């Protein structure tokens, strides 16, 4: 069984935590519903006892029994309404004591039949009525849940909401703290790498100058290419030294910058891979050349690795005048990416190569979004046919034209 990369392990733990949270939520809801069912059953029993006591009060002449039934009647804790078969209200209990349901003068009370009608309709929607025969007339007792039962129904949702908010805040704080620590480690490692590369790069530059003088190799092609590689090492070291600090963006022609790097890169890969660059040479954007070259390098390396044997890489530069944007599309004829992995390929640790670290596209996304205020995404891909990555930048040339 293939080992999981760090991103996949992280996602697996998220699923496990989500499943555990779901079990807790389901258990809480089940137990609360169990309590609600038992309390509702108890309240209906009390309502039935109250209804029967009312019947006995109205039908009995026994004073002792009457006192007993009055005591039972007064013990009811749920709001109730007694109505006849026509729906006319004959009595109420446990509702607003400042309102009358019949038009009788009462101190401090208001005749409000609409209120009692609304309560009656609500009670009908909650429970089946209790049917009685009082003085030979069919009577119905309606009731609704007590305030305690209503609160208990809402309690698990309130509880789960509070727990969810707490977990979200804790997860956000933990992730932010961990990300900050990781960023500090990466920044320190990157700057130390740049520092360590400085000495051998300076030495190599000096050795190349000595070679030119000793062997009269000023125009030698191989020495020139060696010099280009050492200069590339200088750029790499400069890239690492800039990690963690806000890079300075300067306006550059996007086509010219991409062309310079493609010309350097294409002579250093297999001749079985062809390169094609096309597009508008007048589009400009704010770029940091060392970091932007790194972005193009990562995309081209990714494209080369995706091509098995012979293939081609096409770089097309275009724009959208309405949205004031510059597009850079990098298309390869490689093995393609499943649609389900379009977002995953930018996650740290994701790689399809045995010796890959899975950091190239992750760094690329960070450099475009955080440092160049742009976007990068998989525009299109088809298994066995190839992939197109798109970079979106702000067109600074259109900005100036608009202002002028």
From TrEMBL:
It comes from the Bacteria. The keyword Transcription regulation does not apply. Residues 192-397 form the Histidine kinase domain. The chain crosses the membrane at residues 15-36, 154-174. It catalyses: ATP + protein L-histidine = ADP + protein N-phospho-L-histidine. One of its GO terms (molecular function) is kinase activity. Coiled coil: none annotated. Keywords: ATP-binding, Kinase, Membrane, Nucleotide-binding, Phosphoprotein, Transferase, Transmembrane, Transmembrane helix, Two-component regulatory system. InterPro entries: HATPase_C_sf (IPR036890), HATPase_dom (IPR003594), His_kinase_dom (IPR005467), HisK_dim/P_dom (IPR003661), Sig_transdc_His_kin-like_C (IPR004358). Its EC number is 2.7.13.3. This is histidine kinase.
């Amino acid at each position: 069984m293939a080992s999981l990369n760090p991103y996949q392990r992280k996602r697996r733990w998220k699923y496990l935590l989500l499943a555990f949270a779901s079990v807790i939520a389901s258990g809480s809801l089940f137990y609360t519903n169990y309590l609600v069912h038992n309390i509702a059953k108890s309240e209906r029993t009390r309502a039935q006892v109250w209804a029967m006591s009312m019947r006995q009060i109205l039908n009995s002449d026994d004073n002792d029994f009457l006192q007993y039934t009055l005591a039972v009647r007064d013990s009811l804790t749920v709001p109730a309404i007694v109505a006849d078969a026509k729906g006319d209200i004959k009595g109420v209990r446990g509702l607003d004591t400042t309102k009358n349901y019949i038009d009788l003068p009462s101190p401090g009370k208001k005749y409000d039949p609409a209120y009692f009608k609304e309560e009656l309709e609500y009670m009908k929607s909650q429970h089946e009525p209790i049917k009685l025969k009082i003085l030979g007339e069919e009577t119905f007792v309606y009731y609704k849940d007590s305030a305690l039962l209503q609160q208990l129904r809402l309690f698990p949702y309130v509880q789960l909401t509070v727990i969810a908010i707490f977990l979200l805040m804790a997860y956000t704080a933990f992730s932010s703290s961990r990300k900050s620590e990781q960023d500090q480690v990466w920044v320190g490692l990157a700057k130390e790498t740049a520092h360590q590369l400085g000495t051998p790069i300076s030495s190599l530059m000096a050795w190349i100058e000595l070679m030119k003088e000793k062997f009269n190799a000023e125009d030698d092609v191989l020495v020139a290419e060696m010099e280009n590689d050492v200069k590339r090492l200088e750029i790499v070291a400069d890239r690492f030294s800039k990690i963690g600090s806000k890079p300075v963006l300067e306006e550059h022609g996007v086509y010219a910058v991409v062309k310079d790097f493609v010309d350097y890169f294409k002579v250093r890969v297999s001749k079985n891979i062809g390169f094609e660059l096309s597009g508008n040479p007048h589009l400009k954007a704010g770029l940091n050349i060392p970091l932007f070259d790194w972005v193009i390098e990562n995309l081209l390396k990714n494209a080369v690795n995706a091509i098995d044997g012979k293939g081609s890489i096409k770089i097309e530069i275009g724009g959208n005048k309405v949205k004031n944007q510059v597009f850079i599309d990098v298309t390869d004829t490689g093995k393609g990416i499943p649609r389900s992995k379009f977002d995953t390929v930018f996650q740290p640790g994701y790689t399809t190569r045995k010796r890959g670290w899975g950091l190239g596209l992750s760094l690329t996304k960070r450099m475009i979004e955080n440092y160049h205020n742009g976007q990068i995404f998989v525009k299109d891909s088809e298994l066995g046919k190839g992939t197109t990555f798109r970079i979106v930048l702000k067109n600074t040339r259109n900005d100036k034209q608009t202002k002028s």
